[in-house]
Design goal:
mainly beta; 2 helices
Length: 316
């Protein structure tokens, strides 16, 4: 662990550790998810297993004597999801449990340090509902329908149940709730699908920040995503992805940090069908412009198994 006790170095070390925490935890804000509001029949279920790796620099205030701050986050995750009828609209409920291995390192003057963590991070649940173009249809009805434009809304919730120790600076959990309301629009033009989403991350207070009695708050983090995907054949497609997110300034015990983000990322996604029920998705993204926080290269591979539960006609 980075430890500097002389003069104001303790506060500096605390601030640096906060940046490393941001690096390890900011990955959800960097999500690039094409076709998040794609139309689907009700009764569709899926199981997803994925692995990923994010690595790169953590950019800090250049006036501070902090150098070579870097982080590597490797992760595995398991997720489940299902579509269902919610007041006549198609709804999707997804839950994901991540297990990361994180390493952060840095140097303050001549003193260098490194810390590693592994364990369960905070799980995430997302409920989305398609409004425009989102009429709940059974598989046969869905196959005969055509919905080129979809307008949807969603709410993601991150629960504070991941690994967290109030006496440690670096943690995998956040000890706070996180909420992300989002609105998304998807429009198909021939083989192309254009997606756009806007959202905001909202955070509750972490009242057990290091050394256990400190209070840490974070301002809302606003995000925008855009995607253009091209379908070669059903379930075989590729996408060009981009996102921009800004805000998220943190405050510890009333002292505001110089860590406001204004970052952008670009990437690509490729989906490959393996069998009638299985598919593979590979994605890569990198920082296009990073003002503060993690400037990561991220690669992820996900395997998905999906199946449909037959729906009984009304009144049967």
């Amino acid at each position: 662990m980075l430890r500097l006790e002389a003069g104001g170095a303790w506060k500096l070390t605390l601030w640096t550790a906060g940046l490393m925490l941001t690096a390890a935890r900011a990955l959800p804000a960097q999500d690039l998810e094409p076709r998040a509001y794609t139309a689907a029949p009700i009764g569709l279920h899926f199981l997803v297993a994925s692995v990923g790796r994010s690595s790169g620099a953590v950019l800090v205030d250049t006036s501070l004597p902090i150098e070579d701050v870097r982080a590597v986050v490797e992760s595995a995750a398991i997720g489940v999801g299902t579509t269902f009828d919610l007041a006549g609209r198609t709804a999707l409920l997804v839950g994901v449990v991540p297990y990361p291995w994180a390493e952060a390192s840095g140097r303050v003057g001549e003193t260098a340090g490194k810390v590693t963590r592994s364990g369960f991070a905070d799980p995430r649940v997302k409920l989305s509902v398609n409004l425009l173009g989102g009429e709940a249809l059974r598989p046969r009805e869905f196959a005969a329908s055509r919905r080129p434009t979809i307008l949807g809304v969603s709410l993601s919730i991150v629960a504070p149940v991941g690994q967290y120790y109030s006496d440690k600076l670096i943690n995998l959990g956040t000890n706070r709730w996180q909420f992300k309301p989002e609105i998304g629009l998807s429009h198909a033009i021939g083989r192309w699908t254009i997606d756009g989403y806007t959202a905001v991350w909202l955070y509750t207070v972490n009242d057990a920040f290091f050394p256990g009695s400190s209070t840490r708050t974070q301002d809302p983090l606003f995000t925008v995503q855009a995607h253009a995907s091209y379908t070669l054949r059903p379930r075989l497609w590729f996408a060009i992805d981009g996102t921009w997110y800004a805000g998220g300034t943190t405050t510890v015990n009333g002292v505001t940090n110089v860590d406001r983000q204004s970052n952008s990322r670009i990437g690509g996604t490729f989906s490959l069908p393996l069998t009638a029920r299985q598919s593979l998705k590979v994605s890569y993204s990198t920082g296009a412009k990073t003002r503060s926080g993690g400037d990561f290269n991220t690669v992820a591979i996900g395997w998905q198994l999906s199946w449909i539960t037959p729906q009984r006609p009304p009144g049967s």
